[in-house]
């Protein structure tokens, strides 16, 4: 597979690993957060932590939109789905997320709700066109990678004059979450975790460009290296971070030059700006209320906003007591620190969102690494 | 969720539409988020939409850098074993 296989070459991975081993200072510790769940998955799947010296520790970040979506929002989606006449379309990731009253979207479907899995929001639009008697609601989740496609279909729905299509918008923003993590860190206390550098998300950055991280790097004095998704991309980015930390630099560097520019995809950014605007704040699992971190649909497209159309109340719902997803999403705890990890909570019978999503730290660790020792600095 | 795959354009099939090929599997996707999509382009496809293009020159640069790093590593290994 072109542009994939070349970046998975084992010999080059080991050469990168040896280079990193040579360049880490023996008495220094390098705590690097990979923000994006896709990177957590790549690191687990390719066993990259085994290639790294013990001085380098990868900390899993909250860049998993399913994981950070609070239970209350999933409850709202389930409530919508259970209404007669509503067809709720959703990405596959959300179907098995446990919500309140022992429900999930999947279980609601078993109870008779018309819940349909779609690969693309465009499929939801097509369903609305094909089934005019149904109220089709698209459950939109995702960071900036996934948001522009939602903007495209809302505009298409408007152009078509559709009367039976709306979007339940839960899109969230990456830089805001990174800032919030740094603020938690700076405040000290139980919720803080020391992070020395960030592996920046790949496809979020294809959309937003590398410039949004520049203010962040300067303000918090932390290096950010935007990394591609393949294992060699991640290894090269870790090397670049190690070098920055050794040099005392805090810059934004782009390793994913084949797909990310400084300005990003400006057409996508324009479309997002046309359709969405900032919410004042949004409740995140693990991070609490984060200001200016999520999007809502603009007044111009109110007819396609499920929250306006259906008057959906939001209830803040705490995670199950045994669930450590919140601390794991902040990078404070590792999946193996969770008492129910691997016993009561498994991919087959998940208790928390981190185990359901293929990008969740728990799912990644369970699938690829749970027999590996986790003793690192 | 953020998973996206580089896919080759085999046909520009309509306004804001293209047919792409990934290892022989073909699919119609939306190109509404890009301009001037052409046959032969490698696009990054996410949830049925092309969100960006792979720049072949920049991909070459990355591979060249990795090759150079590998050579340096080989030299370091050789030096260490002497």
Would you give an account of this structure?
The complex is a heterodimer of chains A (377) and B (82). With 377 residues, chain A is α/β, with parallel strands linked by helices. Chain A is built from 17 helices and 13 strands. In chain A, α6 links the parallel β3 and β4. The longest helix of chain A is centred in the middle third of the chain and has 17 residues. Chain A is globular and about 65 Å long. Chain B has one domain: Roll (SH3 type barrels), CATH 2.30.30. In chain B, β2 and β3 form a beta hairpin. The model of chain B has no long low-confidence stretch (mean pLDDT 93). Chains A and B meet through α1, α7, α8, α10 and α12 of A and β1, β4, β5 and α1 of B.
What topology emerges from the helices and strands here?
The complex is a heterodimer of chains A (377) and B (82).
Chain A: H1 10-23, E1 30-36, H2 37-45, H3 48-51, E2 56-63, H4 65-68, H5 71-81, E3 86-90, H6 105-110, E4 114-117, H7 121-130, E5 135-142, H8 147-160, E6 165-171, H9 174-187, E7 197-200, H10 202-208, H11 212-220, E8 224-226, H12 231-247, E9 252-254, H13 266-275, E10 276-278, E11 281-284, E12 288-291, E13 295-297, H14 306-310, H15 325-329, H16 353-356, H17 361-368
Parallel strand pairs in A: 1-2, 1-7, 3-4, 3-5, 5-6, 7-8, 8-9
Antiparallel strand pairs in A: 10-13, 11-12
Helix pairs in contact in A: 1-12, 2-17, 8-13, 9-11
Chain B: E1 5-14, E2 17-22, E3 25-30, E4 42-46, E5 49-53, H1 56-80
Antiparallel strand pairs in B: 1-2, 1-4, 2-3, 4-5
